[in-house]
Each structure stands twice: as structure tokens, then as C-alpha cells.
Amino acid sequence: METLYADIIINISHEALDRVFQYRVPFSLCEQIRVGQSVRVPFGAGNREQRGYVVRLSDQAEYDPKKIKEILSIEEDSVSAESRMIKLAYWIRENYGSTMIQALKTVLPVQDKMKQKEKKSVRLMLPKEQAPGLLDEYLGRHYAAKARLLAALMDEQTVSWERVTKDLKIPRTTVAGMEQDGIIRVETEMFYRNPGPGGMEAEAALPLNESQEKLIQEFKADYAAGERKTYLLHGVTGSGKTEVYLAAIEEVVRKGKQAIVLIPEIALTYQTVCRFTKRFGDRVSILNSRLSKGEKYDQWLRAKNGDCDIIIGPRSALFVPFPNLGLIIMDEEHEGSYKSEQTPKYHAREVALKKADMEGAAVILGSATPSLESYQKALDGKYRFWTLKDRAKEAVLPDVYIEDLREELKQGNRSMFSRRLYELIGDRLRKKEQVMLFLNRRGYAGFVSCRSCGTVMQCPHCDVSLTYHRDGKLRCHYCGYEEVMPEACPECGSPFIGTFGLGTQKAEAAIRKEFPEARVLRMDMDTTKRKHSHEEILKTFSEGRADILVGTQMIVKGHDFENVTLVGILAADLSLHANDFRAAERTFQLLTQAAGRAGRGEKAGEVVIQTYSPEHYCIVTAAAQDYEEFYRQEIAYRTMLCYPPVWQMLTVLLAGPSEEECKQTAQRMARVIQNSGIRVIGPGEASLAKVNDIYRQVLYVKEKDYKELVKVKDRLELWIDRQELPKDIHITFDFNPMSSY
Ligand SMILES: Nc1ncnc2c1ncn2[C@@H]1O[C@H](COP(=O)(O)OP(=O)(O)OP(=O)(O)O)[C@@H](O)[C@H]1O
Ligand SMILES: [Zn+2]
Ligand SMILES: [Zn+2]
After folding, report:
1. ∠ CA(224), CA(225), CA(226), 5° rounding?
2. Is residue 248 very low, low, confident or very high in pLDDT (cuts 50, 70, 90)?
3. Ligand whose nearest atom lies closest to the CA of 387
4. Higher-confidence residue: 213 or 482?
5. pLDDT band at residue 110, thresholds of 50, 70 and 90?
6. Where residue 685 sits, what CATH number does that domain have?
7. Are 500 and 443 in contact (CB under 8 A)?
8. What's the CA-to-centroid distance between 340 and ligand 3, angstroms?
9. Which parts of the sequence bind Zn(2+) 2 (predicted)?
10. What is the pLDDT at residue 578?
């Protein structure tokens, strides 16, 4: 038998030990040892005994085998929830690039043990019939405080600590004295800080419709057969995906297992949380970024102790340590916010799949507009394909109109509303129905377009739009190509060429001017800074106290507004010409989701998409609600230009206070990659070339195989380790980036 070696992390709370150490597995432990177990090992010069976690096993010694020490013993025979997390952290570190400590901080978000909240109360221990006699005695002796407390306890048996100390004003010494005499007892009960809505009336499940029922039957059959699959649920907006999630969770919980429900923070609204709470009561726990540290810790503890079965939250909810995880659900699986913006830049979908695999759980990915990544896998048969084609209620999908803004300008209409949208808004105001106007600013990064013909200045090499820089030049952020900002449109000669300057504030002002009688609400970054403002605006609107809601992508998620019969998208191009390869996909998603807000009640809905590129496939297919056709065209584009998900891409970002040092280091890194026979794009300036006096340079590597990119990352990490790089240069890796650099 070959010698077995184990990579071990020592004492995870120690920042300085950010690496793994190799140990030999003694023959007697070879059968037993598993990744994730905690072990005792000799460590350091003095061979002090330390606890460590096994993160990898191999049969290769990484240095002189004679110098490799041996593991002393295995601490826990089973792999605990915590050690499973550590194994996951190791995988994250390997696949996304970070230090071990950063990876551990990701998976163990609450590392310091916090004090659990206590509830103190005082209980009467004296037999009830003896109490009146004692009360008389106290009163006779003028023990006023003792008498007050006893009288209160004669009514209630237990009294809360707040009442004892604050309302009854009983001195602590009195309480202590009475406790010593055996008359009362001070009791302490631990409880969890619970941020959920609570006190909801239970609601029974809706009877599933035929299409939903079919999916759930399949899920149950798979589950019973011990098969843990990944399902991609592609269901149009309002098709009842959430009901399917609820039914799947019910099944898993009935089997004594737990479920994690991931929802993008922006869609994690009061309404969503209520739906889950009504179904599962206090077995549900909620995580979100607004919780205090203590609240977060308690949700973590609840899960670990088996005191809840379901956790709902954004991507960090993945790391809640359930003892027996059965299902991970990822709603709106296409959402960019599932990708972490901090190192390690992991994608929650990929981590969810890995975690499910490690723990024997099933995964349901759901969306009306699946990511290309997931759709491709479903087509390849790697995921089970589920579809819901119709809306669950009677409601039908809305009629969609595409309005060509170039044509409007030609006809002398310079306002931000096409004639059709203007007309329909007026119509809805008369009918007392509601309107949502949507201005998509995400990904907007200073592209230049012609207002007469719609031409967008593009890179001749990369098929992405050029970005306007303040030095008057247009640049491509993928290849570094640059040209001078033209004074007239190169296509039609029109002088109306420039950056697109339309904001929600401007839109609101225009609406007020055109429709002075309308009650208008605006929802964007500015109006939602306060803690509950997001909810307040949506509540005002849903209660019919406003006619028009204008906002950014924030308004497209989470709410069912019965009375909204018109949705207008003011400028669909804003996100279409963002300078990254996902621009069309993102635009398609946003348009489909926004259109999905119209006509969710009994009245039919209409949608107006205003655009300068009415023939662009992402707009045409979104208007037709034709995902398949969009996918076909988009995947052809990605294939042709070697973008994800067809190819895999690694972005390396270098940031530092000296432009020269940044550039030089980037060039050196590019050579390291080239020397191993791999093509590099760049270095080039990032689109945000300088932020707060920090310069930014980027490198791109594209490969067919993700593993090859991981090797590139490993090689660079090793190289970085061995160099004396300028201290203040910060290097980050981003695999298959979701945003542009
Ligand atoms: N089987 C059913 N019977 C009756 N109503 C249903 C059923 N399933 C869902 N609904 C209702 O249809 C509406 C849409 O359902 P749900 O929110 O689950 O859809 P969704 O696909 O998650 O929507 P979206 O993608 O827009 O978030 C809800 O009001 C829901 O109560
Ligand atoms: Zn033009
Ligand atoms: Zn280019």
C-alpha cells in the first residue's frame, strides 16, 4: 500500500498560519481518515500538539518524506458540520483564488462565539397555599418590597425580570434574599433573536395545478429513490415557481431534513418572507444584510441545533450549518448578485452545487430567464429540465410593443415618451389603473450613441461598446483599442451624438410635467437609503396611493401588483450597450422581468419597450417572451467570440497607487502566463482606470477548460509568493466575471 499524506489546516483562528501543512497518515488511520475530519498533530519546533482539519488527501509527498511528521489521532470520527464547512472553504480557495483565511471567513461568517440572549424571570417556589400567610407576615414586618414581589407572584407564578426590577422596583438584594430562603427562584432561559415577521396566521398550501403537480411528483420519486438531482425550473413570470419550491421543501422537511432558500437580497421582500412564514411558521429563519451580528449568530445557531428547518437569505445563507441538509433552492438563479464582489469571488450557484454534492442534497434552480450557464447544462442533460409555460392564475402574458426612438425623433418628438407610451399612460390615469416606468441604469458605463440613427460606437475587434473617457477618447476595455470621440455620427453624420444622460430623477420630473394630475413615486438608490423606505414605497404603491411608480431595476422584483396594467421601459438600450459580454443577456432578463410585472391581476396588461435598437435580438425576443430564441442567438455570439459559458474566462485585476508599478507588474504577470503557452489579453486599463487615486490594470485569460484557468491562477499565486512585489499592489482573481472591469 502506498503512503498516504494529508494536507492539514492548523488552528484556523490564527491569521499568520495561512497555509496548509502536509502530514503522513499512520497506517493504522489510513482506513478511517476523511477530508473534513479534525485531527491532532504535532506542530512547530516544539511539536506542540495542535488541532487541525484535513482538507486534502494524496499519495504524493510535497517535500522530503523524511521530514514529514505524522498525524497523532483522529478527533472526531464523523465529519461535523463545521469541518464540512472547512472542506468547502478549501474548495472555494482552490477554485476562485484567495487566502485560506479569506475563504474561511466566507464560510464561517460568525466566527466569534457570541452570547446568546437570555430571558430572566422569577418564579414562586413556595406552595401556593402558604403564600397568603407569608404575605401577612411581610406586611406585618413592613417588608414592603418583599410583599410587592410576593403579591405579584401570587397572581402569576412567574414574573419577568424587567417587571421585577423596573415596574415593581424590587432591589436585587431582596430578590437574592428571598431566593436563599427558598421562596422564589430566578430562572434564565436562552432564546434566539428572531428577525422574522412572526405571529403569522398559518396558511395551507394551494392545490397545485397540473403542471406544478407533475414536477413535484417527479421530485418526490427521485428523492424516494435516493437520487439527488439538480433541477432547472424555467417558468414564466407568475407561473407559480414559488409554490413548487414550497411543496419541494415540505417534502424534504417531512423526511427530517433541512432546506436552504437563496433569494437575491433585492427580491427578499416582506411579501416573500411572509409566504414562507405562513407555510412553515417558526421553523423558518431569515438572514439578510440588515441583521445585527447577534441576530445573524442566532440564526446560525438555530440551524446548527436543529431548531429550524428552513433558512431564507441571500448568498451567505448557503453557509448555515444544517445537520442534515436535504435541499437547496436558488430563486432567480440568473441574478448577478449571487456572485460575491469580495475575494474569494465565488458564485453561489457553483458553491451550492458543490455543497449539495458534499452533503447529499438536491438543488432547484429557478428563473423566468435562466442564465446561459444553467440553460446550457440543462440542454446537455446535466440538469433536469423543468418548465412552467403558463401563468398560474387566469392572468395571461401582456401584449408588448416595441417603440423606435429614432423614428420618434424623426417625427419631431424629443420628449422621453414615445407617442404610444404617452397615450397609454393617459389612458391608465383615466381608468384609475396603475403604471410602472422602468429605467434600467445598471451596467451603464458611458457608451456613446447617435440619437438620430441609434448607432453605438463599438470596438472593431471585440463587439462591445466603447467607453467614453474624460480625456475625450473612446476605449475598448477588452483589448485596449482606442479612438478619438467623433464630432458627428460616422453612420449618418448627425451631430446628435454623445453619452446617454438619462436618470430616474429626470424621468420623474418629465412625468410630473407631462401628467400633472398623476401621483408619482420614485424608487432608486437615492429614495431608498433609509432602512424601510424600500418597503414603504412599494406599500404606498400597492395600496393604490400612487398612480405611477418610476424606478430602476429595483422595482421589477418581488411584488404582485394586481392593478398594474401598463409597464413602460424608457430606454432599453441603457444596459444593452454596457461594455461587457453579458450586456445582451442582462437586458433580456431585465426586460422580461419588467414586462412580467404587467397584467398580473384580472385585467390584461400592456408593455411598451422604447429603444434605439428595435431590431436587436435581445429586444425582439424579450418582447415575444421567447427565451429559446434568445438563447440560440446569444449562445452563437458567445461561441463565436469565445466567451463564457462556452469558454471560461479569468480576469486578473491589479490595483495600486502607482500607475507605473501597476502596469509593470501586470506585464510581468502576463509574461508568466505566456511562458506556459497560454494566450493573454492585456494588460490594459480597467474601465474604471483610476478610483480614489488607485490605478487599475486588467488581464484576461480565456480557456475551454475551467481547470486550465485554475492552473493559471495557481501558477500566478506561486509566482506572487516568490516575488518582492510592491507591497501596496492588490491583486484579485475573478473567474467568469459577472461585471465588467
Ligand atoms: N396552483 C395555484 N393555484 C392558484 N394560484 C396559484 C397557484 N400557484 C401559484 N398561484 C398564484 O399565482 C401567482 C404567481 O405565483 P408565484 O409567485 O409562485 O409565481 P412565480 O413564478 O414565483 O412568479 P415570479 O417569477 O413573477 O416571481 C401568485 O399570486 C400565486 O399565489
Ligand atoms: Zn447616426
Ligand atoms: Zn476591443
Report:
1. 90
2. very high
3. 1
4. 213
5. low
6. 3.30.70.600
7. no
8. 26
9. 459, 462, 476, 479
10. 66
CA of 344 to the centre of ligand 2 (A): 43
DSSP assignment letter at 205: P
**Which of 239, 244, 266 gets mutated to test ligand 1 (max ligand atoms within 8 A of its CB)?**
239
Atom 15 (ligand 1) nearest CA: 240
Residue 373: inside a domain: yes
* Residues annotated in a binding site for Zn(2+): 450, 453, 459, 462, 476, 479, 489, 492
What is the domain range of residue 85? 5-107
Per-residue pLDDT at 116:
63
Give me ligand 2 centre to Cα 480, in Å: 24
Question: CA angle, corner 332, sides to 323 and 541, nearest 5?
Answer: 115
Contact 286, 295 (CB under 8 A): no
Best mean pLDDT range from 37-46, 80-89, 249-258, 443-452: 249-258
In a domain, 150, yes or no: yes
Q: Whose CA is nearest to atom 16 of ligand 1?
A: 240
Beta strands 648-656 and 694-703, pairing class: antiparallel
Phi and psi at residue 250, to the nearest 5°: -55, -45
The pLDDT value recorded for residue 647 is 95
Mean pLDDT check: name the lowest of 334-343, 390-399, 611-620, 718-727.
390-399
Determine which of 219-228, 449-458, 701-710 has the lowest per-residue pLDDT on average. 449-458
Q: Same structural domain for residues 654 and 634?
A: no
Q: Which ligand is nearest to the CA of 453?
A: 2
Beta strand ranges found along 612-721 (DSSP E): 648-656, 680-691, 694-703
Residue 589 located in a structural domain: yes
- For residue 423, give the CATH number of its domain: 3.40.50.300
Task: Output 634 or 682, whichever has higher pLDDT.
Answer: 634
Using CA positions, which residue lies closest to atom 7 of ligand 1?
A: 392
Q: In this structure, which ligand is nearest to the CA of 392?
A: 1
189 DSSP β-pair partners? 119
pLDDT of residue 192 exceeding 80: no
- Name the closest-CA residue to atom 31, ligand 1: 240
Give the DSSP H or E segment for 670: helix 659-675
Instruction: Find the 536 Cα to ligand 1 centroid distance in Å.
Output: 23
Q: For residue 406, how far is its CA from the centre of ligand 3 (angstroms)?
A: 27
Which pLDDT does position 198 carry in this prediction? Answer: 59
- For ligand 1, mutation pick of 216, 232, 243, 396 (most atoms within 8 Å of CB): 243
User: Of 560, 542, 597, which is closest to residue 242 (Cα–Cα)?
Assistant: 560
Which residue's CA lies nearest to atom 6 of ligand 1? Answer: 392
Measured from the Cα of 332, ligand 1's closest atom is 25
For residue 508, give the 3-state DSSP assignment.
helix
Q: Do 252 and 379 have their domain in common?
A: yes
Ligand 1: lining residues by beta carbon, under 6 Å: 206, 208-209, 212, 235, 237-243, 368, 392-393, 560, 596
DSSP states along 305-353: TTS-SEEEESGGGGG---TTEEEEEEETTT-GGGB-SSSS--BHHHHHH
Counting ligands in written order, the one closest to the CA of 490 is: 2
Distance 614 CA to ligand 2 centre (A): 15
46: domain CATH number is 3.40.1440.60
Alpha carbon of 691 to ligand 2 centroid (Å) = 32
Q: What is the pLDDT confidence band of residue 442, given thresholds at 50, 70 and 90? A: very low
My answer on whether 633 and 658 are in the same domain is no
| Ligand approaching nearest to the C-alpha of 272 | 1
CA of 239 from ligand 1 middle (Å) equals 5
Q: Which residues pair with 48 in a beta bridge?
A: 43
- Cell numbers 442534515 correspond to 324
Same domain, 696 and 561: no
pTM for the model stands at 0.81
Confidence at residue 444, expressed as pLDDT on a 0 to 100 scale: 44
Other beta carbons less than 10 A from residue 58's beta carbon: 12
Per residue in 713-740, pLDDT tens? 999 988 988 888 888 899 999 999 988 7
Give, rounded to a whole angstrom, the gap between the first and last alpha carbons of the chain.
50
